[in-house]
Prior knowledge:
22% helix, single chain, alpha+beta, 16 strands, MalM, six-stranded mixed beta sheet, Jelly Rolls, signal
Amino acid sequence: MKKKLLPLCLSALFCNLIPASYAALPDTAVSGTTITHRAKPGIETTHAAPTLSLPMLQKLQWQPINEHGTQTIILNSTSQQLNEGHIQGAIATFALPANQGSLEITLSSLIKDKQVYSPNVLVFDEQLRPAAFYPSHYFQYQRPGIMSVDRLEGVLKLTPALGQQQIYLLIYTTRSDLQTSTQMVDPAKAYAKGIGNSVPNIPDPIAHHTETGELTLKVQSESNAGNILIGQVFSSSASKPITVGATRTASISPIKTAPTDVSQSATSIVKPVLNDTEQYFNDAIKRAINNGDIDKALKLLDEAERLGSPTARETFIKVIKNKK
C-alpha cells in the first residue's frame, strides 16, 4: 500500500495543483523619489498614518471597484467628509476584489486651474486592519502628455493574502497637505526642452492644495514581485501598516484580534518569505502527510508557494518518498 502512495501523491501534485502565483515582497518598499510638495514657512508636514477606530471605518460607504476598470472620482462638498485628527475635507473610499490575485492600482489627482487634491492612501485588509500607508509625498508631480494633464500620481502594488474577498482603500488629504503646494513645469519650458531649444527663464506655476478635486483610479492585475501583502497569513495581537515612500514608522492604533500560538503578522514581512513562515509551512506539510491527510498537505504546499516559499515542494516530495 505504501508503494502506491508516492505515485498517487505525485500525480495529485503535478496534475491537480493550480500553478502558484508568487507574491514576493520588496526588500525596500519604494525607490527614492523627489518630493514635489512645497511647505509654507513654519508649517510642519505630517507623514504618519492616522488613528482611526473600527466603528468609524465601518460607518464609511465603501464603493466597489472591479479589476481592469478605471474610475473617475469628483471630490466636492457632497462627497463623504472626514475631519478626524489630521484628516480634513472630502475623502474617497473603495472596496477592491481580494480573490483575483495581485493588483496594480494607479491613482492620479488631476491639476486643474492651478489647484489639486493632495492624496494620502491607507490600505486595509478584509477585517479593516491597516496594512499599508502611502503618504502624500509618494504621489509625485507628472508633466502633461498627449493623453494626460498635469497631475500627482503614484502606483500601488498590492497582494491580498489568501482567503479574503475584499480589501479597502481610504483616500484623504490632511491639514498639513492643505498648507503646501506643488510646483509644476511651465509648458513653454517643457516644449523648449523637448525640441532642444534654450529653456526660457520664466517662473514655474504653483498648484495649491485643496480639500476637493478630481481623481482617477485605474485597477489591473499584477503578476510581478514587489507588492505589499494586504492581510494576515496568521492571526496577530497587533497590526501596523507598512509606510510606503517614507522613512518614518507609521503610527496607528492597532485593532486587536484573538491571539494564537503563531504571532507573526504578514503585514510586517519585507522579504519574499521569512524563515519562521517557511518553517511553519514545512512542518505543517510534514504533519499532514504523516497523518495521512494528503489533501491538506497539497493545500499547504499551494499556499506556501503563493507566498514565495522555495522549499515547500522539496519538503513535500521528500516526506512522500520517506513514506515508501
